[in-house]
């Protein structure tokens, strides 16, 4: 079986205050995500959100059901979002083949029984980053290119947060049950993401950092606005952000990250903003 899964339980803000560095990383950091010819998954009890990575190299890799789901197949009661962060690849959904290039996305609705991942070139394998959430309806499978994304440019060079937000799998682009995914690209010379910071108690979130240059890092900030902590992260690592936590980062270089959300609503603007001087 090429699919493996790890379970992470939800934690309260009070519990998180007592964590040391190792405990925080064990609870929130997801690494490694990619293994040759395998599917690696982490099941979070925050909104039953699944984060994973698929790296087909020598063979195609099938997304198989896992015991925590108690389901006949992976998408029996779930929807799936995919963004390719590597070489060109394909995703075959119940026999229909989709070619997914670098930084393109694919949404797969509930009820699809077979999902198979493959790379077009073993020397430059695809790196399929995936998010999955429980679903109540079956929406159509759809390939989303960067041209089809809802794109917003925010920030400024003066505040080191000039960035492009590509909303790929959001309700302004296509229908989903609760999953939302997008990609934020920091402009050269900029380091800060999601600043000013915010929380949204109606939704949890996962950040996946990539295009972090070799020898560089991103410092991801988390915790309640008056009780912030940090986790140092490397390329191709993800981090779970509880609903009560901010989720913001600063890198030693510019980088790109994918955000995935699930929860009570699909309102991208549903945020409880935290003024920068109020952070502690």
TrEMBL record:
<keyword id="KW-0479">Metal-binding</keyword>
<dbReference type="InterPro" id="IPR027449">
    <property type="entry name" value="KduI_N"/>
</dbReference>
<keyword id="KW-0413">Isomerase</keyword>
<comment type="pathway">
    <text>Glycan metabolism; pectin degradation; 2-dehydro-3-deoxy-D-gluconate from pectin: step 4/5.</text>
</comment>
<dbReference type="GO" id="GO:0008270">
    <property type="term" value="F:zinc ion binding"/>
</dbReference>
<dbReference type="InterPro" id="IPR011051">
    <property type="entry name" value="RmlC_Cupin_sf"/>
</dbReference>
<dbReference type="GO" id="GO:0045490">
    <property type="term" value="P:pectin catabolic process"/>
</dbReference>
<dbReference type="InterPro" id="IPR014710">
    <property type="entry name" value="RmlC-like_jellyroll"/>
</dbReference>
<comment type="function">
    <text>Catalyzes the isomerization of 5-dehydro-4-deoxy-D-glucuronate to 3-deoxy-D-glycero-2,5-hexodiulosonate.</text>
</comment>
<keyword id="KW-0862">Zinc</keyword>
<feature type="binding site">
    <location>
        <position position="200"/>
    </location>
    <ligand>
        <name>Zn(2+)</name>
    </ligand>
</feature>
<dbReference type="InterPro" id="IPR021120">
    <property type="entry name" value="KduI/IolB_isomerase"/>
</dbReference>
<comment type="similarity">
    <text>Belongs to the KduI family.</text>
</comment>
<dbReference type="GO" id="GO:0019698">
    <property type="term" value="P:D-galacturonate catabolic process"/>
</dbReference>
<protein>
    <recommendedName>
        <fullName>4-deoxy-L-threo-5-hexosulose-uronate ketol-isomerase</fullName>
        <ecNumber>5.3.1.17</ecNumber>
    </recommendedName>
</protein>
<dbReference type="GO" id="GO:0042840">
    <property type="term" value="P:D-glucuronate catabolic process"/>
</dbReference>
<feature type="binding site">
    <location>
        <position position="205"/>
    </location>
    <ligand>
        <name>Zn(2+)</name>
    </ligand>
</feature>
<dbReference type="InterPro" id="IPR007045">
    <property type="entry name" value="KduI"/>
</dbReference>
<dbReference type="GO" id="GO:0008697">
    <property type="term" value="F:4-deoxy-L-threo-5-hexosulose-uronate ketol-isomerase activity"/>
</dbReference>
<dbReference type="Pfam" id="PF04962">
    <property type="entry name" value="KduI"/>
</dbReference>
<feature type="binding site">
    <location>
        <position position="247"/>
    </location>
    <ligand>
        <name>Zn(2+)</name>
    </ligand>
</feature>
<feature type="binding site">
    <location>
        <position position="198"/>
    </location>
    <ligand>
        <name>Zn(2+)</name>
    </ligand>
</feature>
